[in-house]
């Protein structure tokens, strides 16, 4: 969705700035249409790239509920929250205490 929005915005901005540049400096040796289309395409590609990256970053955490346990299983420890890390450490400590108590008795 970000790529589509970026493409639309980029085409519009490319049209505006390309038309202004052509009116101010002339079309050049390639002609009006080729110069304007180059402005529009390069602007659309740039905008769509950055908006696509932004939408991926923003929606990275929106995982459907039925896939959340699977994603947490394969996520690296650095990605998990502090609370979850603390709960895992507490569970490991309690398991270690229980193991030591069973070994002592």
From TrEMBL:
Keyword Oxidoreductase: no
GO BP annotation list: protein import into mitochondrial matrix; protein insertion into mitochondrial inner membrane
Signal peptide positions (record): none
Localization, UniProt: Membrane
Record InterPro entries: Romo1/Mgr2
Transmembrane segments: 6-23, 35-57
CC per GO annotation: TIM23 mitochondrial import inner membrane translocase complex
Keyword annotations: Membrane, Transmembrane, Transmembrane helix
A Pfam cross-reference name: Romo1
Main subcellular location of this protein, as a coarse class: membrane
Family statement drawn from the similarity comment of this UniProt entry: Belongs to the MGR2 family.
Protein's UniProt name: Protein mgr2
Species of provenance: Pisolithus tinctorius Marx 270
């Amino acid at each position: 969705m970000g790529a589509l929005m970026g493409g639309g915005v980029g085409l519009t901005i490319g049209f505006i700035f390309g038309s202004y540049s052509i009116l101010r400096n002339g079309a050049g040796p390639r002609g009006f249409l080729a110069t304007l289309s180059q402005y529009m395409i390069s602007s659309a590609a740039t905008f769509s790239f950055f908006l696509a990256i932004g939408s991926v970053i923003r929606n990275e955490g929106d995982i459907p509920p039925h896939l959340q346990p699977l994603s947490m299983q394969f996520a690296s420890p650095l990605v998990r929250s502090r609370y979850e890390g603390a709960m895992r450490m507490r569970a490991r400590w309690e398991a270690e205490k229980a193991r030591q108590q069973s070994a002592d008795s």
